[in-house]
Design brief:
Structural class: alpha/beta
Largest sheet: 5 strands, mixed
Number of helices: 5
Distance between the termini: 14 Å
Strand content: 15-25%
Helix content: 40-55%
Number of strands: 5
């Protein structure tokens, strides 16, 4: 199964593509989609949508997993990221691909076994689980791979529970 993980953002969207078979995860690609702060807001959203369409067409994932929106104090940023998540979800829906969403706590729990893991712990586990020589850069790409891994592990667990 091919999984696309998405770490949503507005200026930077991380993406990570993995394949899973049996109990193995194989990294395919990871990177970021970016928009310039000098671009008008609607053009930034259009750019994210079109860039995500390219990723979906190129990798043809069987499932897409995205981190849910989490914000602490900056409501303005949260609204912008919410808009970005909307166009990313629309791109996935327009390709008729299943979309799964996970909270930051669920992702950390799936990757490290500890829901309050810090960024360094997460990055090291992504590196180890995918057999990478180095932690993927930038951080948004590593985070997207963590989202994909979370779905891969959750999917396998659900398969076992349901006897498939």
């Amino acid at each position: 199964m091919r999984i696309l993980g998405i770490d949503p953002g507005f200026a930077i969207v991380g993406y990570g593509v993995i394949d899973t078979a049996s109990n193995r995860f194989t990294p395919i690609d990871c990177g970021v989609l970016t928009t310039a702060s000098s671009m008008p807001f609607p053009k930034r959203l259009k750019s994210l949508y079109q860039s995500m369409q390219v990723i979906l067409t190129k990798y043809k994932p069987d499932a897409v997993a995205m981190e849910t929106l989490f914000f602490n104090t900056n409501v303005t940023t949260a609204i912008a990221v919410g808009h970005a998540r909307g166009v990313l979800c629309l791109a996935v829906e327009n390709e008729n691909m299943p979309l799964f969403e996970y909270t930051p706590l669920q992702i950390k729990q799936a990757i490290t076994g500890y829901g309050r893991a810090d960024k360094l712990q997460m990055q090291q586990m992504v590196k180890m689980l995918l057999g990478l020589a180095a932690v993927p850069k930038p951080d948004d790409a590593a985070d997207a791979l963590a989202v994909a891994l979370c779905h891969g592990q959750s999917y396998k667990l659900n398969q076992k529970i349901n006897g498939v």
